From TrEMBL:
Name of protein: DUF4371 domain-containing protein
Gene Ontology terms for molecular function: protein dimerization activity
Source species, domain of life: Eukaryota
Pfam families noted in UniProt: Dimer_Tnp_hAT (PF05699), DUF4371 (PF14291)
HAT C-terminal dimerisation domain: residues covered: 534-585
PANTHER family cross-referenced by the UniProt entry: OS05G0311600 PROTEIN (PTHR45749:SF37), PTHR45749
SUPFAM superfamilies for the chain: Ribonuclease H-like
Occurrences of domain DUF4371 (ranges): 45-220
């Protein structure tokens, strides 16, 4: 030991320690001399790691790939190095302080490898999930689940949670995008419950469930909605997604008449015809939309374009019919020209545009996370009333007159009198008359409207249930507003005691305040936010209101997450692991949360990263 004490290196270090004590002030927190000596280096290291996190956050939030064909820091300026290394190189050029920090970083600890990227992404996803769970707190929530297959054939299950946060704002968050090989009801139920448990959420707080109408989800005996209630051993109301139901209304109503099916077949043939290079070069009108079975809004878009560009389409087809072009094109153009210039074609297009146009606004509003179940039922009811108002002779006549400008295609052959009628006076043709055509269109008009109304009445029957009566009693515009008898079944779902005195006081208070709003219409969410301070003194009433807001009506958020899946899981990223795919989808979908890693959540992420990599001495956390 004495020999080691005589070491010249130890003597220099001891001398340096004494010199530092002589020139530096003594800090009350007793920080180590090594920290004081390397303070600048630690600050540079912190800037370096922080910049790497910022680059990763930017790429994942914007659904952009990180890696390229070359995954080497030395090749970061070359083509194929990927967006992460390219942005890293660009940031070095723009930030001289970062470039200086980079010059002092050991080349075996640059923290730019794909392993580091994956660790940062996983930490970010974990923090986002934790913050979602924290935001839910003790609130009740609705689970929304839907699934889709990615290009590799893997089933991806989107789990969305709907809840009311502490500011009484409705939130819908993507908890996870789970990959599974089994799509039966029991497997899906177990996957969802396991994901909730792993995230730290209590399944006892599930208030309702919202899925599409597939048998695996909605089955009364073996569907996921029933299995979930069996596992939880209590009632958890199931809501059939209103957007899916509205889609089924349109599909079934529009397929009830062969004439309408033929109309859409013509539209589809016209769409394909206009995509031919020789035809598209000559077409100057608005581009037709593709018809999709799973998206009825495409039918509305197609009809809208056809009505706007009908004359342009007719002129184009007429020119192609007589032009010196390919025989197949001429024949197809002649057939399409005859079809779209028929009198009933424009009438059917106008009729469908009228009906679907009334269903489009509620369809869009239902996709908003702000739309609660009460509002959804009201939207459907108003849309149904609007469609019912079309069922009059006056509305038909108005539509028929507007479509009278379409002239039928001229005959190709000159009409001659049959030889068997040479000895007779022919006063008119024996074919179909205009009056007969009008009568057929009138029959089609009323039949289509009846089909739509019948489908809507059959499918949207939740408003007649006991649950809907309870929710409606919490609507300020309802004649049964604050009726304790109707609200009680809603509170029974969560075993909340009904306190009639609180409802009586709240009813008197709210009725008085609503009168003084000068006609201002308050949604249920705004009402709760506006009077939350008063309602907090009546917890039973506040619980009923928050329950009503928690019930969702659509799985549109699940559909939106599938769009994120498509963008993230692009053609050149098919080799990524399911875990990384799920994390990237969540971070991109919850962009408003991911952006916080650039600000208020940066410190938390740095500490997690330092703890994980044991680089606390590499990155200053003070």
């Amino acid at each position: 030991i004495l020999g080691k004490l005589r070491s010249p290196n130890l003597f220099k270090l001891t001398t340096l320690r004494y010199d530092l004590h002589a020139v530096l002030p003594v800090f009350p927190d007793d920080r180590e001399i090594s920290t004081l000596v390397n303070a600048n280096q630690l600050a540079r290291n912190r800037l370096y790691v922080s910049s790497i996190i910022d680059i990763i956050e930017f790429l994942v939030s914007n659904e952009l790939p990180l890696r390229g064909t070359i995954d080497s820091l030395e090749s970061r300026g070359e083509g194929g190095s990927g967006l992460f290394l390219s942005l890293f190189e660009y940031t070095l050029r723009q930030n001289s302080e970062l470039a200086q920090a980079f010059s002092t970083i050991p080349r075996n600890s640059t923290y730019t490898s794909h392993d580091i990227q994956n660790e940062v992404i996983e930490l970010m996803s974990n923090i986002v999930t934790e913050e979602i769970v924290k935001d839910i707190g003790e609130s009740w929530f609705t689970i929304k689940v839907d699934g889709t297959k990615d290009p590799t054939g893997c089933e991806n299950v989107s789990i969305i949670l709907r809840y009311v946060d502490q500011s009484y704002t409705i939130r819908e968050r993507l908890l996870s995008m789970v990959s599974t090989k089994h799509c039966d009801a029991l497997s899906l139920t177990n996957v969802v419950l396991e994901e909730l448990s792993n995230s730290g959420l209590c399944t006892d707080k599930i208030l309702s469930q919202c899925y599409d109408g597939a048998n695996v989800m909605s089955g009364r005996e073996g569907g996921m909605q029933k299995l979930l209630q069996d596992k939880l051993k209590r009632e958890v109301p199931y809501i059939h997604c209103f957007n899916h139901q509205l889609h089924l209304v349109v599909v079934h109503a529009m397929s009830s008449e062969n004439t309408i099916e033929d109309f859409f077949d013509t539209c589809n043939a016209l769409y394909k015809f206009l995509r031919k290079p020789t035809v598209s070069a000559q077409y100057s009108g608005e581009k037709l939309k593709r018809l999709l079975d799973q998206r009825w809004t495409g039918h509305l878009d197609t009809v809208s374009v056809i009505l706007k560009s009908l004359n342009t389409l007719a002129e184009l087809l007429s020119e192609l019919e007589t032009s010196r072009t390919c025989v197949d094109v001429k024949i197809e153009a002649a057939g399409l020209h005859k079809a779209i210039t028929a009198t009933n074609f424009k009438f059917i297009a106008s009729m469908i545009h009228k009906v679907l146009g009334l269903l489009d606004p509620p369809n869009k509003l239902l996709q908003s996370e702000r739309t609660d179940l009460i509002t959804a039922v009201q939207l459907i009811q108003h849309a149904s009333d609007c469609v019912r108002s079309l069922r009059t002779d006056a509305e038909f006549e108005k539509l028929w007159v507007n479509c009278g400008s379409t002239e039928p295609a001229p005959p190709k052959r000159k009409r001659v009198v049959a030889t068997s009628l040479q000895q007779y006076v022919v006063e008119g043709s024996l074919g179909q008359h205009e009056d007969n055509n009008e009568q057929e269109c009138k029959r089609l008009y009323f039949s289509t409207i009846d089909s739509v109304l019948g489908e809507m009445d059959a499918r949207f029957n939740e408003r007649n249930s006991q649950l809907m009566d309870g929710l409606s009693a919490l609507d300020p515009g309802s004649p049964n507003f604050m009726d304790v008898g109707k609200v009680k079944p809603l509170l029974d779902l969560t075993k909340t005691d009904m306190v009639e005195a609180q409802f009586a006081v709240a009813n008197q208070f709210l009725q008085t305040r609503l009168i003084g709003l000068d006609g201002e219409k308050l949604t249920l969410e705004k009402l709760v936010q506006k009077f939350s301070t008063v309602l907090e003194a009546m917890p039973c009433v506040l619980t009923a209101f928050t329950h009503a807001l928690t019930f969702g009506a659509s799985t549109a958020m699940c559909e939106n997450s599938f769009s994120t899946l498509k963008n993230v899981f692009s053609e050149h990223r098919r080799s990524m692991l399911h875990k990384r795919k799920a994390q990237l989808i969540q971070l991109a979908f919850e962009r408003d949360l991911s952006s916080k890693f650039h600000g208020e959540w940066k410190e938390k992420l740095l500490r997690r990263f330092s703890s994980l990599r044991e680089v606390a001495k590499f990155v200053s956390l003070e």
